[in-house]
Design goal:
Length: 624
């Protein structure tokens, strides 16, 4: 059913701005991202062979003939690999530069690699890098094609932005933070190189002494020289020097070290990666944001008449100019009004969620369709400015608070729903929210007793599988650490921690409703939310359960579901039913339990238990 959009005063916009018709908008939307270019596939495909390649890569044995030393090429490889896990998702421009570089480094440094597993893993890494590079190129091509289609729809007509434009702050904070982090990374590299040069200077003038190993500990070896001196020498890999073997000691005054172990700048390398990776990401984000914002402000840009609607979460949805029913949303974004005296930079440059607008004092939005003029070309990561009208019919200028993120698919805005993600229906089913609440409420029989929801058999089976993987992975990484010493393979512990959290969540998440409110049990702790602070529950398109609380607070069960698979298989898992029933209890107080639940029924967070299990695994590996 069509409605009359709130019009823009005729004298506030130029008359020659064309409408963005549905046929042109459909072509623009069709030119968007193909399913195979979704960053998630590239990230997951890279993560698995990367972990295997790091674990299967043998540590070189230090010797006088082949001494160990700082592995700068390995540092670059590790940094690019870790960085690409983020760049594949958010910065395709940086992916197009770094993915080929990493592929060349892997091919140059790792082939021929010892062991079939290592060779297969490195080949898989190169193949996935090619896939990620192709996906990034396709994303860039889709952006160019969408810009071209907008230019064609605008019939070559361009306009400057309406006043007020506001100051150019976009990208300032990421640029400053990125530059600071890159300076720290550069300083760490310089200090590491300085240590290497100092070590080489001492080694060049040192005396070479043959000595017999008589004992060793975790950080050093004790040796006896030919002249019967007993000295202690620091060692990075003391396990490589068996008692009774002969080693070469370099001695220059009070300075001494093993000839097989030159200075290792690993600490400085780790600091360089910790500062350099986010620094490069922030610098690239700031440069792109500033360039896109500047190109939008400093010259005429294509302009099109569109319709827009603001939902109750403050998110703006854009429609074709002839879509008077608001039935087909093209994309959504968060907008902020541009003020003439705007003198503060944005609080952030990333993607903003609906929670930015939520809270006890959340504003009330006008959810009617409004006529608007869109300045700029919409595409993933782009910047836009809108000329529209406020609730009183006065022209206002708004701009995007962050880069545009185009939705893949799903329902459009709901003018009467508590949040967009609360509705996850199979294709073709779109009941009104009030009807949905009434339908779910009709299935609930008030008994007064507490209500509980928890994982099903499939979730617990998955949790057990992840737990087994975490234990095996911990044992493998620990054994590698004991055999080869401290190296890049310790990064596997970070992946095991994420696996631990997911396993604990799948095994024993629990939500209990009683007279006092909700008791929420996640991976690490139990939280209580009184009924008066509850705002609703949502099962998002990313498979995350959200319990939303007042004061912009949210409790999450991240990544426990696969919505696309559940819709196709017709499944209704416990967490999906739970969100509907919690929303019904939230809006219908008469259905709430009247009894309190004992603490033993609130569930046990398994994160600490599994952490102790992994700690015992590490301890047993050390003792074994």
């Amino acid at each position: 059913m069509s409605e009359s959009p709130v019009p823009i005063p005729s004298g506030s916009v130029p008359a020659d701005i064309p409408n963005w018709q549905s046929v042109d908008a459909a072509a623009w939307r069709k030119a968007g991202l193909a399913p195979w270019t979704r960053p998630l596939w590239s990230v997951l495909a890279l993560l698995v062979p990367l972990v295997v390649a790091i674990g299967a890569d043998p540590e070189p044995v230090c010797s006088d003939a082949v001494p160990c030393g700082p592995d700068w090429a390995g540092m670059v490889q590790a940094g690019l690999a870790v960085g690409l896990l983020y760049w594949l998702a958010r910065l395709p421009e940086l992916t197009l530069v770094t993915a080929p570089v990493l592929a060349v480094l892997v091919a140059w440094e790792q082939f021929p690699a010892p062991g079939e597993v290592s060779r297969a893993a490195n080949m898989a890494v190169i193949a996935v890098l090619a896939l990620g590079c192709a996906a990034a190129w396709a994303r860039s091509a889709a952006r160019r094609e969408q810009r071209r289609l907008v230019e064609r729809a605008a019939a070559g007509i361009r306009h400057r932005l309406p006043e007020p434009v506001g100051p150019l702050w976009r990208g300032t904070i990421p640029l400053a933070a990125g530059a600071m982090l890159c300076v720290v990374a550069a300083g760490a590299i310089c200090l590491g190189l300085s240590g290497v040069r100092e070590d080489e200077r001492h080694a060049a003038g040192a005396e070479r002494i043959a000595a017999e190993v008589i004992s060793r500990n975790d950080v050093s070896v004790r040796v006896r020289t030919d002249d019967a001196r007993r000295i202690t020498v620091d060692a990075a890999f003391p396990e490589d020097y068996a008692v009774g073997t002969t080693v070469t000691v370099l001695e220059d005054g009070r300075w001494r070290r093993l000839a097989a172990e030159p200075y290792d700048a690993f600490g400085w390398q780790l600091l360089a990666l910790a500062a350099g990776l986010p620094g490069i990401s922030l610098l690239t984000t700031g440069v792109l944001a500033r360039r896109r914002s500047a190109s939008l402000r400093w010259g005429p840009v294509p302009a099109l008449r569109v319709l827009e609607r603001v939902d109750l979460n403050g998110r703006t949805w854009v429609y074709a100019a002839d879509d008077a029913s608001g039935s087909t949303s093209l994309f959504s974004c968060l907008l902020v009004q541009v003020l003439p005296d705007e003198d503060q930079p944005d609080e952030g440059e990333g993607e903003y969620d609906e929670e930015d607008w939520e809270g006890e004092d959340a504003p009330v939005f006008d959810t009617r369709l409004h006529e608007a003029v869109m300045f700029g070309a919409p595409y993933e990561g782009g910047e836009l400015v809108f000329l529209t009208v406020d609730g009183d019919g006065n022209p206002v200028v708004t701009r995007t608070r962050g880069p545009v993120r185009l939705p893949r698919r799903g329902p459009g805005p709901l003018a009467h729903a508590p949040n967009l993600d609360a509705i996850e229906e199979p294709a073709g089913a779109k009941p009104l929210p009030d009807d949905r609440v009434a339908e779910v409420a009709a299935t609930l029989t008030p008994t007064g007793r507490p209500m509980r929801w928890g994982p099903g058999k499939a979730a617990r089976a998955g949790g057990l599988a992840f737990t087994a993987c975490a234990v095996v992975g911990t044992e493998f990484v620990t054994d590698t650490l004991l055999a080869d010493g401290f190296g890049w393979h310790v990064l596997g512990f970070f992946g095991l921690f994420m696996l631990l959290k997911l396993a604990a969540t799948l095994l024993n998440w629990r939500v209990t409703a009683d007279s006092a409110g909700l008791w929420l049990t996640g991976a690490w702790k139990v939280r209580h939310v009184p009924w008066e602070r509850l705002r609703g529950a949502a099962y998002t398109r990313e498979g995350t359960v959200e319990i939303r609380v007042r004061d912009q607070d949210t409790w999450e069960l991240p990544g426990i579901g696969w919505p696309w698979a559940e819709r196709r298989l017709g499944l209704r898992p416990p967490y999906n039913r739970m969100t509907d029933e919690i929303n019904a209890l939230h809006t219908r107080p008469e259905l709430r339990p009247i009894e309190q639940s004992p603490p033993r029924n609130h569930g046990l967070p398994l994160g600490p238990v599994l952490a102790v299990l992994l700690a015992l695994t590490v301890l047993l590996s050390f003792l074994g």
